[in-house]
Amino acid sequence: MEVDVLIIGAGPAGSTTAKYCAGNGLDVLLIDRRREIGYPVQCGEFLPAVKEMYSMFPETSDLEELLTVDSSLVMGRSDSIDLISPKGRVYRVPFEGLTLDRRLFDKHLAKLAVEAGARLETATSMHSIENGVAATTLGEIKAKVIVGADGPNSRTAREVGLQRPPARYPAVACQAEGTFEPVVKMYFGSVAPGGYGWVIPKNKRANVGIGFRPDLLKDRPSELFEKFAKKIGVTSFTDVTMGFVPQSGPVARTVHGNAMLVGDSAGHVMASNGGGIPIAMIAGRIAGKTIREHLENGIPLDAYDRRWREIMGKPLADSLWTKKLGDLFFPSDRRTEFAMRVLGRRGLARAIRCTRVFYII
Ligand SMILES: Cc1cc2nc3c(=O)[nH]c(=O)nc-3n(C[C@H](O)[C@H](O)[C@H](O)COP(=O)(O)OP(=O)(O)OC[C@H]3O[C@@H](n4cnc5c(N)ncnc54)[C@H](O)[C@@H]3O)c2cc1C
Questions:
Q1: pLDDT digit string (tens) for 266-282?
Q2: Hey, which of 28, 72, 265, 301 has its CA 20 to 30 A from 191?
Q3: Are 162 and 148 spatial neighbours (Cβ–Cβ below 8 Å)?
């Protein structure tokens, strides 16, 4: 089969890329190995409010178009985040956001791509890519442009000779039953060594999970997760999943020949808080528009790499800087407690907002 654009992965990055490059007679094929788009949910499902995204990524524009979410896909809203130290000291930071139903949200994004003119094939895996031809469960697919939107363990990256994010932290998430305060909670210290535990409130439920640095792990991930659930009083939960969060910032190059990486596969994640949904979508829009200009007007595909770095490069680099600073303290509860006290509420607010702590521009 021959297509103009083959997009591997129908998560937020792939579906958004497809939406923005489809149409005008271009043959855009979006494939995903999952039978059901968006399921299982491997996510905390938190999406910052548009105004928070503008404050963290001031060079971005038209985020309303991209990140305004229909209320049918929203399971909860919150206006602050509690950062909780190993000894239980609470630092409350104002921060608006919403809790998505990601199972529905990812389906919705894929539907938008199809409405724009892309073709979607589920239960379709890419196995290898050689000389611009992808071997998939649908057979061989030759494409003018190949997009790797296949998540943190991107096979596309490996197949096309690009680097995938070298540091990927495991994270366990679940749906917990109960009544939860409409405030996001992030727990630091040995509950989730090198990362954090979270409670992200939903209607009569919460998304509860932990993300951690694998080299600091003493227990099995499931044991660590159960300890965390017990600590915060969660006894009834379902849909436990495990995934990986890129934690090394964007990769050095996101375009090589006719291939490009978008979203987690490119390391498009805020390293200091692990959030990647809006970043994947912002990068996806840039990718989609660039592919279209490339195919219609011949502009180089490389423009994608330059364009996303211009608007997201600095905040993502600052977020990584803060994460690396955290790495100096996280291995010990005592040092984590100390660092949180020194930073205080304002310093911690800067840290989760992709701003350098101890650094005023
Ligand atoms: C436990 C956990 C909690 C998180 N919590 C949050 C949060 O609260 N807020 C937030 O903003 N971010 C969060 N993230 C990060 C966020 O989930 C990702 O940044 C986001 O999903 C990136 O979107 P993506 O489209 O790049 O990748 P993905 O959503 O991972 O989509 C990749 C798609 O590619 C498909 N695929 C993979 N390989 C192949 C192949 N070979 N062939 C065909 N298809 C393939 C997969 O099936 C998948 O559907 C969390 C991540 C984890 C693991």
A1: 999 999 999 999 999 99
A2: 265
A3: yes
